Amino acid sequence: MARFSNYGGLDDAALADGDVAFVRMNTRLRADQLQPGELALSENGRMETNGEWQPREGYDNLSGALTQDGVGVFILAEAAAGAWYVYADVAISAADYDTTAAGVVYVQTSGAHELVDGSVANIENLGFANTDPNGNRVVTVTSSTEFTFALTSTSESYTTGSSPQVGTIKIGQNTLREVYGSCVLSDPNDSNAEYVVIVTTDKAIAYKLNAADVAVSAVDIDYPGGGSIVSDVDVKQAFDYVTIFRNSATAWEWDGDFSGGLAFVAVSSGSKTQHVIYTAATNTTISAGVVTVSETSHGRSVGDKVTVVATASGLTAGSEYEIATVPGANSFTFYADADDVSAQHVVYSTKASLGGGYINMPAAPWGVYHQRRWWLPYFYTDAGSPADRGVRDEIIASDILDRGTFDPIGNQYRITAGIADFTVALHPFNDDNLLAFNRNSIHVLKGVSGSLADVTTVALTDAVGCAARKSIQQYGEKVLFLSDNGVYSVSFIDEYNLRGDEMPLSESINTLIDRINKSYFAGAVSVIHDNRYYLAVPLDDSVENNAILIYNFLNQGWESIDTTGANNFNVLNFHVGRSGQYNNLYVVTTNGGLYRVSDTGRITDELVNSDGSSTLVEIDVPSAATTRRYILGTMENKKWNRAEVHIESADNSASDGAISVILENTDATVELGTLVDIDGAELPTSEAKIYRQRIGNKRAYGAQIKFTPSLGRPSLRAVRLQGMAAQRQQQTLS
Fold first, then answer.
1. Which CATH architecture has domain 14-56+623-725?
2. Average pLDDT value for the chain
3. What CATH number matches the domain at 277-350, 3.40.50.300, 2.40.30.20, 3.90.1720.10, 3.30.540.10?
4. 666 cis-preceded (ω within 30 degrees of 0)
5. What value, to the nearest 5°, has the Cα angle with vertex 617 and ends 623 and 684?
6. Is pTM, for the whole model, over 0.85?
């Protein structure tokens, strides 16, 4: 449009507005109230410090589908797989595999099968030569007595001698291994070896991370006595052990030794041997720093502590030692810097508790490692069949450097003295303090390095509490967590004092916070990585964490809401793990295994298929950026005539995407076309271009630009909208 140096009273002045940088999104305010640089919505996008918006990198599946019995995946009532129905069993009279039709099995039934096209049905007892066709399958109905389903195999033949049939799905067949917990395992003997240990229904699997973006050396770790896990657990590495806290059941632990027994064992439970004195004559021999103690039925275990009370050997009275090996019921060894001796008399003592004696590790839903000891919620007893103590605001700590010994008198602590509140989480924030997050309050426990008898409690706030234990993260002077009203933080005033922030950090995305399913938000999980706070939450009707909210500390704002194009991608845990020399971000999902989500170099998501197979599929990242609403500095309606969008391709792919203008009052969406439509070709790799399109003088109060990438990871660098006031100025005639 022509521009002039001045305008007369009847001239239409050309007006323009736009943004040359994007730094955060704000979904709470009306779109025409946003500040320059704010987006009304960022979906699967990243806003770096250069002010550009770009789709996130694609997720890279490292584990493959964790299938049960090696067959495939089954998700109830999943849109991609169709709903399921109750069917009467119908005999299969014939089946044929057609390799020319990309792996399709044709099935004929002896009578009307009444199957619904696209639903899930169960195949049983069909004989096969190569790939098992039986199990829950998504069916395509071709007639009242015929249907097909997809199966990838070599040339195949089927037999019907064992009375095959089709009917209602069978739960437990063709199912993915359900994932209930995970943790990062670092090998202290290998500076470049880190693993993600995934806890599934019938075993744990350790995946080694490496710089080649491939999870290798997947190792199975058995459970005690063929046991199984059927609900969420907390998994931690401490004391060189991986511990699975199983809520009201006895915990399991594994020593992390890949060269030894690859199996968890149950921690000791029941009555714990109390204070014992060992006084057998000539009970000690020292050879090359190894002290061997001979005591009949000593009852000690590896990791237990003994103290030298009196000695004629080179050992020092008062010294405490950790038992290294237990060769048998009548001897144990430890290491000491002492001269060789043989057949010496030494008096040893095990530790004495402050009160009625030590107990083993109580059953607990979770544990925190701090100050060289375990901190657990003291909800259950340490019995072989743990009993509920009926208390939800007490904690208990292990002895220092002793993962299996707890003193219920000296190291038990009640945080809130029985008020109407309960403990949700503990979080270390400096050497000698713990933050205790209750459901409706937050407290600081000071002096936790010794006996809990010396601990003092300071109430930080009773106006807000923590709703999700795994939402707690520390970044600099702030500790962030999810509450009933959004993401809050507490901040350091100095080394020993904190204050609660009055305004929630999530104030600007309150409309998204309101969509969180409050019935299930206790399972929300989080992580700090690359100066960002990732918070996975269940949105809308989801019962699992199906969306990730991301706060960018460098931009001081919320950056994106991340989802995938599959409805079976539900985040169980985040982990930061080392592959080679770099720390990357990983996600463990409830039914898809292990994914790398940072520095993948991908432009699509590689996800577990949800159609009943165990294959991985490529799905486009559903990204989009919607700008603030531009009103050209006037409250009048405008005639919108021109849009300009500056886009640059990434260096690993050409780009395409759709540009649209969203008008308000009068409400309408003007599709300006894709980059290919506008320019006749994709935007080449590493090239930038300004796309200019006419809007058509559409009348509206305000306008937004929405960019929806469909190929590559194009950066949105700047936008500009141009229009004019729709009302002419009226001149009074005299």
1. Sandwich (2.60)
2. 86
3. 2.40.30.20
4. yes
5. 50
6. no
